[in-house]
Structure prediction request, 197 residues.
Amino acid sequence: MANIDHKPSKFMMNLLHILPPYTNSDKVNVNALIEINPSTINKYEFITETGHLKLDRVGYSSLAYPITYGAIPQTWDHDGDMLDIVIANVTEPLIPGSLAEARIIGVMEFEDSGERDDKIIAVLSDDKRMDHITHFEQLGEHWQEETMHYFEHYKDLKKPGLCKVLGFYGVTEAVAIVDDCATRYNTDYLPKFQAEE
Prediction:
């Protein structure tokens, strides 16, 4: 997992731009950089240019994140950020800023303020308790309803109706979205990033 093909450095590397999206060629597992644990209203986010974790905002309501949340490196979604990943059924909080290997089980297609902001659904690949989970439907109907309720309503006190879940889809659709975001990273984001160097 996460063997970085990079010579040793005395400077801290920005894993958002060093690690590939997938951990292997079969496109089952992805690298997930952890930003948020469940039961918090604080929104932490990686600074794309430096890789540091920052407090982006304090939530607008008492609705707390129901899942572990992070970003997939070397991807670029339509909202101008790395592609989001939600990791289900994590038994203990993960350290924000840490790297985890996650196995794709689906995707929640999502729109925030008119922009696509999809969430890849995954489980920890190293958690034997999750070996039997291969599709998001196996998480149960309540998991889907709770996740959808959170993402459709967490910004209501800012402005109702900003967010809309477009549907839950399987692994094939999820991998296609990761691939699309990886392509967009190389065609849309990387040239601007390199031009600034």
About this structure: The chain has a mean pLDDT of 93. Residues 108 and 168 are 5 Å apart (CA to CA). Residues 15-195 form a domain with the Inorganic Pyrophosphatase fold (CATH 3.90.80.10).
